[in-house]
Fold this protein.
Amino acid sequence: MGRYITTTGTASTVLREVDGNFNATVNDRILADSTSSSFVITLPANATLIENDTLQVIDVSSTFGTNNVTLSRNGSLILGDTDDVVLDVNGAVVTLLYTGTTYGWIFTGT
C-alpha cells in the first residue's frame, strides 16, 4: 500500500526545515530554504522503497530560481530516467510518488 502524506499532516508526516544538503526519508515534507546557497536533497535509498511511498519539497523561501535545489535519485529512476532533477522555479512545491522500478519517482503535484 505504501506510506503517504495526507493533506492534514498526520503523525506519519515529518516536517523538516532544510537549508543545506539533506538525506530525505519517506513521508518527509521538506521546507527547503535556498536563500544562502544551492544544495542537494538525496532521495531515500532504492532498497528501502515500496510502491506509493511519498515525499514533498517546498521552496519555503521562494529562491529556487536563484539557488537551485537538486534532487539526487540515490539509485532510483526519476520519471523513468537516470538523471537527477534540478528544482529551479521560485515557489515550487513538488510532491513525489515512488511507483516501482519501471518509472521510479514521479511528480504528482507541483
